[in-house]
Specification:
CATH topology of the largest domain: Rossmann fold
Largest sheet: 6 strands, antiparallel
CATH class of the largest domain: Alpha Beta
CATH architecture of the largest domain: 3-Layer(aba) Sandwich
Structural class: alpha/beta
Bound molecules: flavin-adenine dinucleotide, flavin mononucleotide
Number of domains: 4
Number of helices: 14
Strand order of the largest sheet: 9-8-11-6-7-10
Number of strands: 16
Length: about 500
Protein backbone atom coordinates (compact mmCIF):
# COMPACT_ATOMS: atom_id res chain seq x y z
CA UNK A 1 0.00 0.00 0.00
CA UNK A 2 2.80 2.31 0.87
CA UNK A 3 4.50 1.42 -2.44
CA UNK A 4 1.27 2.08 -4.32
CA UNK A 5 0.97 5.48 -2.61
CA UNK A 6 4.53 6.46 -3.55
CA UNK A 7 4.10 5.36 -7.13
CA UNK A 8 0.96 7.39 -7.75
CA UNK A 9 1.71 9.66 -10.77
CA UNK A 10 0.49 12.76 -8.93
CA UNK A 11 2.75 11.93 -5.99
CA UNK A 12 5.72 11.37 -8.31
CA UNK A 13 5.26 14.71 -10.03
CA UNK A 14 4.75 16.35 -6.60
CA UNK A 15 8.02 14.83 -5.35
CA UNK A 16 9.85 15.94 -8.49
CA UNK A 17 8.51 19.44 -7.94
CA UNK A 18 9.71 19.42 -4.33
CA UNK A 19 13.15 18.15 -5.34
CA UNK A 20 13.36 20.80 -8.07
CA UNK A 21 12.34 23.52 -5.62
CA UNK A 22 14.93 22.27 -3.09
CA UNK A 23 17.64 22.09 -5.76
CA UNK A 24 16.69 25.61 -6.89
CA UNK A 25 16.96 26.84 -3.31
CA UNK A 26 20.41 25.19 -2.89
CA UNK A 27 21.55 26.63 -6.21
CA UNK A 28 20.31 30.05 -5.19
CA UNK A 29 22.17 29.91 -1.87
CA UNK A 30 25.32 28.60 -3.56
CA UNK A 31 25.11 31.33 -6.20
CA UNK A 32 24.67 33.95 -3.48
CA UNK A 33 27.70 32.61 -1.58
CA UNK A 34 29.71 32.46 -4.82
CA UNK A 35 28.70 36.04 -5.63
CA UNK A 36 29.63 37.17 -2.13
CA UNK A 37 33.01 35.38 -2.30
CA UNK A 38 33.65 36.88 -5.72
CA UNK A 39 32.90 40.35 -4.35
CA UNK A 40 35.28 39.72 -1.44
CA UNK A 41 37.98 38.43 -3.77
CA UNK A 42 37.58 41.41 -6.04
CA UNK A 43 37.94 43.68 -3.07
CA UNK A 44 40.94 41.86 -1.67
CA UNK A 45 42.95 41.30 -4.81
CA UNK A 46 44.06 43.10 -7.88
CA UNK A 47 41.91 42.27 -10.89
CA UNK A 48 44.04 39.55 -12.46
CA UNK A 49 47.16 37.75 -11.42
CA UNK A 50 48.98 34.55 -12.11
CA UNK A 51 48.03 32.10 -9.35
CA UNK A 52 51.22 30.10 -9.93
CA UNK A 53 53.45 33.12 -9.35
CA UNK A 54 54.61 34.31 -5.91
CA UNK A 55 52.11 36.61 -4.24
CA UNK A 56 52.93 40.16 -3.22
CA UNK A 57 50.88 42.04 -0.67
CA UNK A 58 50.20 45.69 -1.51
CA UNK A 59 48.75 47.68 1.39
CA UNK A 60 47.67 51.30 1.49
CA UNK A 61 46.41 54.04 3.78
CA UNK A 62 45.18 57.23 2.16
CA UNK A 63 43.22 60.27 3.27
CA UNK A 64 42.55 62.10 0.02
CA UNK A 65 43.23 59.31 -2.48
CA UNK A 66 46.82 59.78 -3.67
CA UNK A 67 48.28 56.83 -1.75
CA UNK A 68 45.37 54.65 -2.86
CA UNK A 69 45.91 55.59 -6.52
CA UNK A 70 49.64 54.83 -6.21
CA UNK A 71 48.93 51.48 -4.54
CA UNK A 72 46.54 50.55 -7.35
CA UNK A 73 49.12 51.56 -9.97
CA UNK A 74 51.76 49.51 -8.12
CA UNK A 75 49.48 46.47 -7.99
CA UNK A 76 48.68 46.87 -11.67
CA UNK A 77 52.39 47.06 -12.53
CA UNK A 78 53.05 43.78 -10.71
CA UNK A 79 50.00 41.98 -12.10
CA UNK A 80 50.75 43.05 -15.67
CA UNK A 81 54.28 41.69 -15.17
CA UNK A 82 52.80 38.28 -14.27
CA UNK A 83 52.73 38.32 -10.47
CA UNK A 84 49.87 37.52 -8.14
CA UNK A 85 48.90 40.51 -6.03
CA UNK A 86 46.71 41.10 -3.01
CA UNK A 87 45.70 44.75 -2.68
CA UNK A 88 44.24 45.83 0.66
CA UNK A 89 43.60 48.92 2.76
CA UNK A 90 45.66 48.49 5.94
CA UNK A 91 42.67 47.94 8.23
CA UNK A 92 42.00 44.65 6.43
CA UNK A 93 45.45 43.21 7.14
CA UNK A 94 45.93 40.41 9.64
CA UNK A 95 49.01 38.82 11.14
CA UNK A 96 48.27 35.64 9.18
CA UNK A 97 48.05 37.52 5.90
CA UNK A 98 51.41 39.18 6.50
CA UNK A 99 53.01 35.89 7.43
CA UNK A 100 51.58 34.20 4.32
CA UNK A 101 53.39 36.70 2.08
CA UNK A 102 57.14 36.97 1.67
CA UNK A 103 56.91 40.40 0.08
CA UNK A 104 54.88 43.42 1.00
CA UNK A 105 54.70 46.90 -0.49
CA UNK A 106 53.09 49.69 1.52
CA UNK A 107 51.86 53.07 0.28
CA UNK A 108 51.03 55.23 3.30
CA UNK A 109 50.20 58.90 3.58
CA UNK A 110 50.35 61.04 6.69
CA UNK A 111 47.53 63.40 7.59
CA UNK A 112 46.54 65.80 10.39
CA UNK A 113 49.63 66.48 12.45
CA UNK A 114 51.66 63.36 11.88
CA UNK A 115 48.56 61.12 11.98
CA UNK A 116 47.45 58.01 10.10
CA UNK A 117 44.56 58.38 7.62
CA UNK A 118 41.14 57.91 9.22
CA UNK A 119 40.38 54.50 7.72
CA UNK A 120 43.66 53.14 9.20
CA UNK A 121 42.50 53.54 12.80
CA UNK A 122 41.72 49.83 13.31
CA UNK A 123 45.18 48.92 11.99
CA UNK A 124 46.87 51.49 14.24
CA UNK A 125 45.08 50.25 17.35
CA UNK A 126 45.35 46.58 16.42
CA UNK A 127 48.17 45.20 14.32
CA UNK A 128 50.53 48.16 14.61
CA UNK A 129 50.25 48.05 18.40
CA UNK A 130 51.26 44.39 18.50
CA UNK A 131 54.62 42.68 18.03
CA UNK A 132 54.78 40.44 15.00
CA UNK A 133 57.37 37.93 13.94
CA UNK A 134 57.92 38.28 10.22
CA UNK A 135 60.49 35.74 9.23
CA UNK A 136 62.00 36.08 5.75
CA UNK A 137 59.61 38.90 5.04
CA UNK A 138 60.74 41.74 2.78
CA UNK A 139 58.84 45.00 2.93
CA UNK A 140 59.19 48.34 1.20
CA UNK A 141 57.27 51.38 2.45
CA UNK A 142 56.45 54.36 0.28
CA UNK A 143 55.62 57.16 2.70
CA UNK A 144 53.73 60.14 1.24
CA UNK A 145 53.99 63.47 3.00
CA UNK A 146 54.85 67.09 2.79
CA UNK A 147 57.99 68.56 4.39
CA UNK A 148 56.02 71.75 5.13
CA UNK A 149 54.53 69.74 8.02
CA UNK A 150 56.51 69.23 11.20
CA UNK A 151 55.93 65.46 11.32
CA UNK A 152 57.16 64.68 7.82
CA UNK A 153 55.96 61.24 6.63
CA UNK A 154 55.39 60.28 10.26
CA UNK A 155 52.89 57.47 9.69
CA UNK A 156 54.85 55.75 6.91
CA UNK A 157 57.99 56.00 9.02
CA UNK A 158 56.20 54.50 12.03
CA UNK A 159 54.98 51.53 9.99
CA UNK A 160 58.48 51.06 8.55
CA UNK A 161 59.96 51.03 12.08
CA UNK A 162 57.34 48.48 13.13
CA UNK A 163 58.11 46.25 10.14
CA UNK A 164 61.81 46.54 10.94
CA UNK A 165 61.18 45.56 14.56
CA UNK A 166 58.96 42.66 13.39
CA UNK A 167 61.77 41.44 11.16
CA UNK A 168 64.23 41.76 14.05
CA UNK A 169 61.85 39.87 16.37
CA UNK A 170 61.83 36.92 14.04
CA UNK A 171 65.54 37.11 13.27
CA UNK A 172 66.57 37.23 16.92
CA UNK A 173 64.63 34.00 17.39
CA UNK A 174 66.08 32.35 14.29
CA UNK A 175 69.44 34.06 13.90
CA UNK A 176 71.75 34.79 16.78
CA UNK A 177 73.49 37.58 14.85
CA UNK A 178 70.19 39.37 14.55
CA UNK A 179 71.02 42.43 12.47
CA UNK A 180 68.83 41.84 9.48
CA UNK A 181 66.76 44.85 8.71
CA UNK A 182 67.93 47.63 6.53
CA UNK A 183 66.97 51.08 5.40
CA UNK A 184 67.26 52.13 1.81
CA UNK A 185 69.24 49.23 0.34
CA UNK A 186 67.40 46.29 1.76
CA UNK A 187 70.53 44.17 2.29
CA UNK A 188 69.91 41.55 4.86
CA UNK A 189 72.00 38.88 6.45
CA UNK A 190 69.13 36.59 7.32
CA UNK A 191 66.30 37.20 4.89
CA UNK A 192 64.04 39.83 6.45
CA UNK A 193 64.42 43.42 5.38
CA UNK A 194 62.56 46.67 5.42
CA UNK A 195 63.08 49.73 3.26
CA UNK A 196 61.60 53.21 3.36
CA UNK A 197 61.16 55.72 0.56
CA UNK A 198 59.78 59.11 1.63
CA UNK A 199 58.02 61.32 -0.92
CA UNK A 200 57.78 65.06 -0.39
CA UNK A 201 54.65 66.52 -1.98
CA UNK A 202 54.42 63.81 -4.67
CA UNK A 203 57.99 64.55 -5.79
CA UNK A 204 58.47 62.98 -9.23
CA UNK A 205 62.02 61.70 -8.56
CA UNK A 206 60.97 59.83 -5.41
CA UNK A 207 58.04 58.31 -7.27
CA UNK A 208 60.43 57.16 -9.99
CA UNK A 209 62.63 55.59 -7.29
CA UNK A 210 59.56 53.69 -6.09
CA UNK A 211 58.67 52.60 -9.61
CA UNK A 212 62.25 51.36 -10.09
CA UNK A 213 62.06 49.51 -6.74
CA UNK A 214 58.80 47.82 -7.74
CA UNK A 215 60.35 46.92 -11.10
CA UNK A 216 63.37 45.41 -9.31
CA UNK A 217 61.10 43.34 -7.08
CA UNK A 218 59.24 42.05 -10.10
CA UNK A 219 62.55 41.14 -11.72
CA UNK A 220 63.71 39.42 -8.52
CA UNK A 221 60.54 37.32 -8.34
CA UNK A 222 60.16 36.49 -12.00
CA UNK A 223 63.75 36.49 -13.15
CA UNK A 224 64.84 37.65 -16.61
CA UNK A 225 61.41 36.98 -18.10
CA UNK A 226 59.95 40.03 -16.36
CA UNK A 227 58.40 42.55 -18.71
CA UNK A 228 60.78 45.43 -19.30
CA UNK A 229 58.89 47.95 -21.32
CA UNK A 230 55.35 48.17 -20.02
CA UNK A 231 55.84 50.68 -17.22
CA UNK A 232 56.21 53.97 -19.03
CA UNK A 233 52.72 55.10 -18.04
CA UNK A 234 52.45 53.07 -14.84
CA UNK A 235 50.93 55.91 -12.85
CA UNK A 236 47.98 57.08 -14.86
CA UNK A 237 46.97 60.22 -13.00
CA UNK A 238 43.55 61.51 -14.02
CA UNK A 239 43.95 63.95 -16.90
CA UNK A 240 43.30 67.64 -16.34
CA UNK A 241 40.46 69.24 -18.27
CA UNK A 242 40.50 72.84 -19.57
CA UNK A 243 37.68 74.72 -17.83
CA UNK A 244 36.40 78.25 -18.51
CA UNK A 245 35.60 80.47 -15.54
CA UNK A 246 31.93 81.25 -16.17
CA UNK A 247 31.03 83.08 -12.96
CA UNK A 248 32.65 84.37 -9.78
CA UNK A 249 30.58 85.72 -6.94
CA UNK A 250 31.68 87.24 -3.63
CA UNK A 251 29.62 85.45 -0.98
CA UNK A 252 30.53 87.56 2.08
CA UNK A 253 30.67 91.27 1.25
CA UNK A 254 31.63 93.35 4.28
CA UNK A 255 33.03 90.34 6.18
CA UNK A 256 35.78 90.85 8.75
CA UNK A 257 37.25 87.54 7.55
CA UNK A 258 38.92 86.64 4.25
CA UNK A 259 36.80 87.11 1.14
CA UNK A 260 34.98 83.92 0.12
CA UNK A 261 34.05 83.44 -3.53
CA UNK A 262 31.93 80.94 -5.41
CA UNK A 263 33.52 80.06 -8.74
CA UNK A 264 31.53 78.32 -11.49
CA UNK A 265 33.45 76.52 -14.23
CA UNK A 266 32.28 74.95 -17.50
CA UNK A 267 34.40 72.73 -19.73
CA UNK A 268 36.05 74.56 -22.62
CA UNK A 269 34.79 71.78 -24.89
CA UNK A 270 32.45 68.83 -24.48
CA UNK A 271 30.55 67.62 -21.46
CA UNK A 272 31.41 67.88 -17.79
CA UNK A 273 33.60 65.03 -16.55
CA UNK A 274 32.06 62.58 -14.11
CA UNK A 275 32.40 63.13 -10.36
CA UNK A 276 30.54 62.17 -7.20
CA UNK A 277 29.57 64.34 -4.28
CA UNK A 278 32.52 64.61 -1.90
CA UNK A 279 35.15 64.61 -4.68
CA UNK A 280 37.98 67.12 -5.06
CA UNK A 281 39.69 69.08 -7.77
CA UNK A 282 43.42 69.77 -8.01
CA UNK A 283 44.90 72.66 -9.92
CA UNK A 284 48.19 74.48 -10.41
CA UNK A 285 48.34 78.25 -10.82
CA UNK A 286 50.82 80.30 -12.89
CA UNK A 287 52.66 81.59 -9.78
CA UNK A 288 53.34 78.00 -8.58
CA UNK A 289 53.10 75.53 -11.49
CA UNK A 290 54.81 72.73 -9.47
CA UNK A 291 52.59 72.48 -6.45
CA UNK A 292 48.93 71.59 -6.93
CA UNK A 293 46.21 72.85 -4.56
CA UNK A 294 43.05 70.90 -3.74
CA UNK A 295 39.50 72.29 -3.54
CA UNK A 296 36.26 70.51 -2.61
CA UNK A 297 33.64 70.41 -5.34
CA UNK A 298 30.47 72.23 -4.24
CA UNK A 299 28.18 71.08 -7.05
CA UNK A 300 26.89 67.90 -8.65
CA UNK A 301 27.08 67.18 -12.38
CA UNK A 302 23.34 67.92 -12.76
CA UNK A 303 24.04 71.56 -11.79
CA UNK A 304 25.70 71.94 -15.18
CA UNK A 305 28.89 73.50 -13.80
CA UNK A 306 31.75 72.61 -11.51
CA UNK A 307 31.54 74.92 -8.52
CA UNK A 308 34.04 75.73 -5.78
CA UNK A 309 34.02 77.94 -2.70
CA UNK A 310 37.44 79.56 -2.38
CA UNK A 311 38.66 81.62 0.57
CA UNK A 312 41.20 84.26 -0.35
CA UNK A 313 44.00 83.33 2.04
CA UNK A 314 46.66 85.55 3.54
CA UNK A 315 49.91 84.09 4.85
CA UNK A 316 51.37 84.91 8.26
CA UNK A 317 53.70 87.49 6.68
CA UNK A 318 50.72 89.28 5.13
CA UNK A 319 51.44 88.13 1.55
CA UNK A 320 48.53 86.65 -0.42
CA UNK A 321 48.17 82.88 -0.82
CA UNK A 322 49.21 82.06 -4.38
CA UNK A 323 46.40 79.82 -5.61
CA UNK A 324 43.50 81.45 -3.78
CA UNK A 325 44.65 84.92 -4.88
CA UNK A 326 44.79 83.72 -8.47
CA UNK A 327 41.34 82.17 -8.28
CA UNK A 328 39.70 85.03 -6.41
CA UNK A 329 41.35 88.01 -8.15
CA UNK A 330 43.82 86.93 -10.84
CA UNK A 331 42.02 84.81 -13.38
CA UNK A 332 39.40 86.72 -15.40
CA UNK A 333 35.93 85.57 -16.39
CA UNK A 334 36.18 83.64 -19.66
CA UNK A 335 39.81 82.58 -18.98
CA UNK A 336 40.83 78.93 -19.10
CA UNK A 337 42.26 76.91 -16.19
CA UNK A 338 43.38 73.27 -16.26
CA UNK A 339 41.51 71.39 -13.52
CA UNK A 340 41.85 67.75 -12.49
CA UNK A 341 38.82 66.08 -10.92
CA UNK A 342 39.95 63.57 -8.27
CA UNK A 343 37.89 60.79 -6.75
CA UNK A 344 37.89 61.26 -2.97
CA UNK A 345 36.64 57.86 -1.89
CA UNK A 346 37.18 58.69 1.80
CA UNK A 347 34.63 61.52 1.65
CA UNK A 348 32.11 60.14 -0.83
CA UNK A 349 28.70 58.94 0.35
CA UNK A 350 29.69 55.35 -0.46
CA UNK A 351 28.13 52.89 2.00
CA UNK A 352 26.41 55.77 3.77
CA UNK A 353 24.12 56.59 0.86
CA UNK A 354 21.13 55.02 2.63
CA UNK A 355 21.87 56.48 6.07
CA UNK A 356 20.69 59.75 7.60
CA UNK A 357 23.51 62.31 7.39
CA UNK A 358 24.85 64.76 9.95
CA UNK A 359 26.84 67.37 8.02
CA UNK A 360 29.18 69.60 10.03
CA UNK A 361 31.44 72.35 8.76
CA UNK A 362 32.63 75.93 8.62
CA UNK A 363 33.62 78.52 6.04
CA UNK A 364 34.72 77.14 2.67
CA UNK A 365 33.99 73.68 4.12
CA UNK A 366 30.37 74.27 3.15
CA UNK A 367 31.53 73.29 -0.37
CA UNK A 368 31.99 69.58 0.40
CA UNK A 369 28.72 69.51 2.37
CA UNK A 370 26.72 71.31 -0.34
CA UNK A 371 27.61 68.65 -2.89
CA UNK A 372 26.29 65.93 -0.55
CA UNK A 373 23.05 67.80 0.16
CA UNK A 374 22.52 68.33 -3.57
CA UNK A 375 23.15 64.64 -4.30
CA UNK A 376 20.66 63.65 -1.60
CA UNK A 377 18.01 66.14 -2.74
CA UNK A 378 18.40 64.69 -6.24
CA UNK A 379 17.67 61.25 -4.75
CA UNK A 380 14.60 62.61 -2.98
CA UNK A 381 16.06 62.20 0.52
CA UNK A 382 15.49 64.73 3.27
CA UNK A 383 17.10 63.03 6.28
CA UNK A 384 20.10 65.36 6.42
CA UNK A 385 21.03 67.77 9.20
CA UNK A 386 23.45 70.62 8.53
CA UNK A 387 25.40 72.28 11.35
CA UNK A 388 27.41 75.13 9.97
CA UNK A 389 29.62 77.83 11.47
CA UNK A 390 30.74 81.21 10.14
CA UNK A 391 31.62 84.62 11.57
CA UNK A 392 28.70 87.02 11.46
CA UNK A 393 25.08 86.50 10.39
CA UNK A 394 25.20 90.01 8.88
CA UNK A 395 28.04 89.40 6.41
CA UNK A 396 28.88 85.69 6.40
CA UNK A 397 25.52 84.01 5.94
CA UNK A 398 26.78 82.34 2.77
CA UNK A 399 24.37 80.45 0.51
CA UNK A 400 21.61 81.52 2.92
CA UNK A 401 18.92 81.62 0.25
CA UNK A 402 19.70 78.12 -0.98
CA UNK A 403 19.77 76.71 2.56
CA UNK A 404 16.46 78.40 3.44
CA UNK A 405 14.85 76.97 0.29
CA UNK A 406 15.96 73.46 1.23
CA UNK A 407 14.57 73.85 4.74
CA UNK A 408 11.27 75.24 3.47
CA UNK A 409 10.99 72.57 0.79
CA UNK A 410 11.60 69.84 3.38
CA UNK A 411 14.90 68.80 1.78
CA UNK A 412 16.96 69.56 4.87
CA UNK A 413 15.55 68.04 8.05
CA UNK A 414 17.48 70.47 10.27
CA UNK A 415 19.69 73.51 9.85
CA UNK A 416 21.62 74.90 12.82
CA UNK A 417 24.08 77.74 12.39
CA UNK A 418 26.75 79.06 14.74
CA UNK A 419 28.11 82.59 14.49
CA UNK A 420 31.48 83.19 16.10
CA UNK A 421 31.27 87.04 15.87
CA UNK A 422 27.66 87.55 16.80
CA UNK A 423 28.15 90.58 19.05
CA UNK A 424 27.22 92.88 16.09
CA UNK A 425 23.68 91.58 16.35
CA UNK A 426 23.71 91.60 20.16
CA UNK A 427 23.50 87.79 20.43
CA UNK A 428 25.74 85.13 21.94
CA UNK A 429 28.73 83.86 19.91
CA UNK A 430 29.15 80.18 19.16
CA UNK A 431 31.43 77.88 17.26
CA UNK A 432 30.10 74.93 15.35
CA UNK A 433 31.29 72.52 18.06
CA UNK A 434 29.07 74.42 20.54
CA UNK A 435 26.11 73.42 18.37
CA UNK A 436 27.00 69.77 18.98
CA UNK A 437 26.89 70.34 22.74
CA UNK A 438 23.61 72.27 22.54
CA UNK A 439 21.98 69.54 20.45
CA UNK A 440 23.77 66.59 22.08
CA UNK A 441 20.57 64.58 22.72
CA UNK A 442 19.37 65.00 19.16
CA UNK A 443 22.83 64.07 17.90
CA UNK A 444 22.80 60.89 20.00
CA UNK A 445 19.34 60.03 18.64
CA UNK A 446 20.47 60.47 15.01
CA UNK A 447 23.58 58.37 15.58
CA UNK A 448 21.50 55.65 17.28
CA UNK A 449 19.25 55.68 14.21
CA UNK A 450 22.28 54.93 12.05
CA UNK A 451 23.33 58.40 10.89
CA UNK A 452 26.76 58.99 9.33
CA UNK A 453 28.78 62.10 10.19
CA UNK A 454 30.60 64.21 7.57
CA UNK A 455 32.92 67.05 8.61
CA UNK A 456 34.36 69.56 6.13
CA UNK A 457 36.41 72.72 6.63
CA UNK A 458 39.37 73.90 8.66
CA UNK A 459 41.40 71.32 10.57
CA UNK A 460 42.65 73.67 13.26
CA UNK A 461 39.88 74.91 15.47
CA UNK A 462 36.84 73.39 13.75
CA UNK A 463 37.99 69.87 12.77
CA UNK A 464 39.79 69.22 16.04
CA UNK A 465 37.09 70.91 18.15
CA UNK A 466 34.32 68.88 16.51
CA UNK A 467 36.30 65.67 17.00
CA UNK A 468 36.81 66.32 20.72
CA UNK A 469 33.15 67.28 21.15
CA UNK A 470 32.00 64.12 19.39
CA UNK A 471 34.26 62.14 21.75
CA UNK A 472 32.72 63.92 24.75
CA UNK A 473 29.14 63.25 23.58
CA UNK A 474 29.41 59.78 22.03
CA UNK A 475 32.45 58.42 23.90
CA UNK A 476 35.89 57.78 22.40
CA UNK A 477 35.16 54.13 21.63
CA UNK A 478 32.03 55.01 19.65
CA UNK A 479 33.86 57.74 17.70
CA UNK A 480 36.68 55.29 16.90
CA UNK A 481 34.15 52.69 15.79
CA UNK A 482 32.37 55.21 13.54
CA UNK A 483 35.71 56.23 12.00
CA UNK A 484 36.72 52.61 11.45
CA UNK A 485 33.31 51.83 9.89
CA UNK A 486 33.51 54.83 7.56
CA UNK A 487 30.45 56.33 9.26
CA UNK A 488 32.49 59.37 10.33
CA UNK A 489 34.31 60.97 7.40
CA UNK A 490 36.44 64.07 7.28
CA UNK A 491 37.65 66.47 4.64
CA UNK A 492 39.59 68.87 6.83
CA UNK A 493 42.52 71.01 5.76
C1 LIG B 1 41.48 68.13 0.73
C2 LIG B 1 41.50 69.64 0.67
C3 LIG B 1 40.36 70.35 0.30
C4 LIG B 1 40.38 71.73 0.27
N1 LIG B 1 39.25 72.41 -0.08
C5 LIG B 1 39.25 73.77 -0.09
C6 LIG B 1 38.07 74.50 -0.44
O1 LIG B 1 37.02 73.91 -0.77
N2 LIG B 1 38.13 75.85 -0.41
C7 LIG B 1 39.27 76.55 -0.07
O2 LIG B 1 39.26 77.78 -0.08
N3 LIG B 1 40.41 75.86 0.25
C8 LIG B 1 40.43 74.51 0.24
N4 LIG B 1 41.59 73.83 0.56
C9 LIG B 1 42.81 74.62 0.83
C10 LIG B 1 43.51 74.95 -0.50
O3 LIG B 1 44.01 73.76 -1.08
C11 LIG B 1 44.71 75.89 -0.33
O4 LIG B 1 45.57 75.37 0.65
C12 LIG B 1 44.29 77.29 0.03
O5 LIG B 1 43.50 77.86 -1.00
C13 LIG B 1 45.51 78.18 0.26
O6 LIG B 1 46.34 78.05 -0.86
P1 LIG B 1 47.14 79.29 -1.44
O7 LIG B 1 47.93 78.86 -2.60
O8 LIG B 1 46.25 80.46 -1.63
O9 LIG B 1 48.10 79.66 -0.23
P2 LIG B 1 49.67 79.45 -0.19
O10 LIG B 1 50.09 79.93 1.16
O11 LIG B 1 50.32 80.08 -1.36
O12 LIG B 1 49.80 77.89 -0.34
C14 LIG B 1 49.28 76.98 0.57
C15 LIG B 1 50.08 75.70 0.51
O13 LIG B 1 51.17 75.63 -0.37
C16 LIG B 1 52.39 75.69 0.33
N5 LIG B 1 53.23 76.70 -0.37
C17 LIG B 1 52.82 77.74 -1.01
N6 LIG B 1 53.82 78.43 -1.55
C18 LIG B 1 54.92 77.80 -1.25
C19 LIG B 1 56.28 78.01 -1.56
N7 LIG B 1 56.68 79.03 -2.26
N8 LIG B 1 57.14 77.11 -1.10
C20 LIG B 1 56.74 76.06 -0.41
N9 LIG B 1 55.46 75.82 -0.11
C21 LIG B 1 54.57 76.68 -0.51
C22 LIG B 1 52.02 76.09 1.73
O14 LIG B 1 52.84 75.60 2.71
C23 LIG B 1 50.69 75.46 1.85
O15 LIG B 1 50.79 74.08 2.00
C24 LIG B 1 41.57 72.45 0.60
C25 LIG B 1 42.72 71.73 0.94
C26 LIG B 1 42.68 70.35 0.97
C27 LIG B 1 43.93 69.61 1.36
C1 LIG C 1 45.19 68.26 6.28
C2 LIG C 1 46.50 67.67 5.87
C3 LIG C 1 47.42 67.31 6.83
C4 LIG C 1 48.68 66.77 6.48
N1 LIG C 1 49.59 66.44 7.46
C5 LIG C 1 50.80 65.97 7.11
C6 LIG C 1 51.79 65.66 8.12
O1 LIG C 1 51.58 65.80 9.32
N2 LIG C 1 52.99 65.18 7.70
C7 LIG C 1 53.30 65.01 6.37
O2 LIG C 1 54.40 64.60 6.06
N3 LIG C 1 52.38 65.29 5.41
C8 LIG C 1 51.16 65.76 5.74
N4 LIG C 1 50.23 66.06 4.76
C9 LIG C 1 50.58 65.87 3.34
C10 LIG C 1 50.01 64.56 2.79
O3 LIG C 1 50.59 63.44 3.41
C11 LIG C 1 50.30 64.50 1.31
O4 LIG C 1 49.62 65.55 0.67
C12 LIG C 1 49.90 63.16 0.69
O5 LIG C 1 50.34 63.15 -0.66
C13 LIG C 1 48.39 62.94 0.75
O6 LIG C 1 48.12 61.63 0.34
P1 LIG C 1 46.63 61.00 0.36
O7 LIG C 1 45.89 61.68 -0.76
O8 LIG C 1 46.83 59.56 0.10
O9 LIG C 1 46.01 61.25 1.67
C14 LIG C 1 48.99 66.59 5.11
C15 LIG C 1 48.05 66.95 4.14
C16 LIG C 1 46.81 67.48 4.49
C17 LIG C 1 45.84 67.88 3.43
Amino acid sequence: MTVEWILTPERISGAIGLIAAYAGLCWGIAAKVRKQRKAEDEENSAPQGNVQAPAVLVAYASQTGQAEALARATAHMLVSGGLQVRLLPVQKLTEDLLQQHMQSLWVLSTTGEGDAPDHALGFVQGLLASKLQLEWHQSVVLALGDSEYQEFCAFGTEVHEWLKASAENSDSSSDANGDSSSDANGDSSSGSSSELICVDNMNAQSLQAWQARVGALRQQLLGESAAQDSDADWLQTPASVPFVLAQRRLLNPGSQGGALYQLDWVPQAGALPHWESGDLVSLCVPADPERARDYSIASIVADGSLQMLVRQSVRDDGSPGLASDWLCRGIALGDVQAITVRAHSGFRLGDNAQRPLILIGNGSGLAGLLSHIKARVQQGRSDQWLMFGERSPLHDAICAEQLAQWVQGGHLARLDQAWSRNSDSGKESHYVQDLLHIHANELLRWVEQGAAIYVCGSLNGMGQGVHQTLQAILGEAKVDALLAQGRYRRDVY
